[in-house]
Design brief:
Helix content: 25-40%
Strand content: 15-25%
Order of helices and strands: EEEEEHEHHEHHEEEEEHEEHHHH
CATH topology: Metallo-beta-lactamase, Chain A
Bound molecules: zinc ion
Number of helices: 10
Number of domains: 1
Low-confidence stretches: 1-48
CATH architecture: 4-Layer Sandwich
Radius of gyration: 19 Å
Largest sheet: 8 strands, mixed
CATH superfamily: Ribonuclease Z/Hydroxyacylglutathione hydrolase-like
Shape: globular
Number of strands: 14
Structural class: alpha/beta
């Protein structure tokens, strides 16, 4: 049943820090732009920071799960109509913080965009604390919710540095999990629904969830890491599929979303522009890695990428995430034998 390739729990977290590790304000590293969402209300619930945005017939809350201990690195979304849905869970290490944010709520659904451990790692912890919630996931990801053992092994292989920071995921009972079909709609009442949109590319088990009444698209990792300090195509191991990613973006554009809800990180209202820019952003990233790969050994390429000024002030965790995306890009390029750079090398060698 399901996945034959190894999977990782690869995680973007691109906080930039100042000399004492303090977060630094965004400063124009990004080529992409976004507008602030309309009228968010920021709530402080104990130590938790949550932004709440009123929608037509619903409320949308952004729960900062402080992924890897860093703010604005990973979030979960709470969509409340008659029924209440959570979209993505954050890591197992973030579970206490997430559960605190959800205390007193009755969750009807937990929608998982994909089973990487920064999106689904807290699922088992949530299942214990919210016995009424049904977990919805792509059929190829479903076995990993029931048994996250291989996800943990995948993370350890992909990034021994980050692996301990994910925490310990717990299994979810099979009778609590449903595989969603492409195009399947989950009504939440009050004319609010979430529609599953299969979006392979970042991972073969990736699903976006679209709320048509308000035009909000819960993007998971399908449109990369968004916002300060750098936008980053999430070309993580084991193999990012650029053609599938491009096709998924075309499909998402066809939905005409107004707002993108990024797990990494937050809401952006210029959805069409961001979607249209992403394939070019991916191509440019792969071309940069490809050019370095043509003259350096694979072990040297991540450091060469990180020597670029745009990454100079990334936190150690952010630098490790970039490394992970470079490693994934190298695997992707290896799977495409005749890239521009490799063609150039071949021609040079030929004379
Ligand atoms: Zn992912």
């Amino acid at each position: 049943m399901g996945e034959s390739r190894s999977v990782d729990g690869s995680t973007p977290s691109l906080r930039r820090t100042g000399p004492q590790g303090a977060p630094v304000a965004p400063s124009g590293f990004t080529e992409r732009t976004s507008q602030a969402p309309p009228s968010p209300i920021t709530l402080h619930c104990g130590t938790l920071l949550t932004s709440m945005m009123p929608l037509r017939n619903a409320t949308l809350s952004v729960i900062d799960v402080t992924q890897f201990g860093e703010p604005n690195a990973g979030c979960a979304y709470l969509l409340s109509a008659t029924k209440i849905a959570l979209i993505d869970t954050g890591t197992a290490a973030s579970a206490p913080r997430l559960l605190e944010a959800l205390r007193g709520l009755r969750l009807d659904y937990v929608f998982i965009t994909h089973i990487h451990l920064d999106h689904a790692g807290a699922a088992g912890h949530l299942a214990l604390a919210h016995p009424e919630a049904l977990f919805v996931v792509h059929s190829r990801g479903l076995p990993y919710l029931l048994d996250p053992t291989r996800l943990v092994a995948g993370v350890r292989a992909a990034s021994p540095t980050l692996a301990p920071m994910y925490g310990e995921p717990l299994p979810v009972d099979g009778d609590r999990v449903a595989a969603c079909a492409d195009g399947e709609s989950f009504p939440l009442g009050l004319d609010i629904a979430l529609v599953a949109i299969e979006t392979p590319g970042h991972a073969p088990h990736h699903v976006c969830f679209f709320e048509p009444t308000n035009g909000v698209l819960f993007a998971g990792d399908a449109v990369g890491h968004h916002g300060a300090p750098v936008d980053l195509p999430l070309t993580v191991p084991p193999r990012f599929d650029p053609a599938a990613s491009r096709a998924s973006i075309v499909r998402l554009l066809g939905l005409q979303p107004r707002t993108l809800a990024f797990t990494h990180y937050g809401l952006a209202n210029d959805a069409p522009a961001l979607l249209m820019a992403y394939p070019r952003h991916v191509d440019e990233w792969l071309a940069r890695v490809d050019a370095l790969r043509a003259r350096l050994g694979p072990e040297e390429v991540p450091d060469a990428v990180l020597s670029e000024p745009r990454y100079a002030l990334l936190s150690p965790v952010g630098r490790e995430v970039v490394r992970l995306c470079v490693r994934g890009a190298l695997l992707t390029l290896d799977a495409q034998p005749e890239t521009r750079a490799s063609q150039r090398v071949r021609e040079q060698r030929a004379g």
